[in-house]
């Protein structure tokens, strides 16, 4: 009887310790250098033009945002991203280089990264962090990912008319 009582007390005590706030990990923002490193890796992957490798840096469905308010954005799923990668991110249906690729080629990897705003009460970043035309969000498991990007108006209209979101 004593032994079963001891085991029960130990189990209750252990459960209480595991559920107590003292055992919870403190909330802290990831190292800011991680975003810089992600940007540089994303830039390199984008310039190599391999859809599967580039897709690792996106949160799907990714939104292609128009440059002006009032225009409708496009949502792209992962399969559509892979299938239409060349037309969406390299050479459009009119066989001209996509403006985003031209801009990425001109980048240096040392672009300005604004200070991220972190809410420690919610243990989350407040809104996306914009680098060039890309909006990055932080995922606790996957790290920094591109949630949305600003797409050139001409390229967006060509992509829509060519139904590259399907």
From TrEMBL:
PROSITE patterns in the record: PROKAR_LIPOPROTEIN
Keyword annotations from UniProtKB, A to Z: Signal
Leader peptide range in chain numbering: 1-24
Superkingdom, natural source: Bacteria
Identification of the protein by name: Lipoprotein
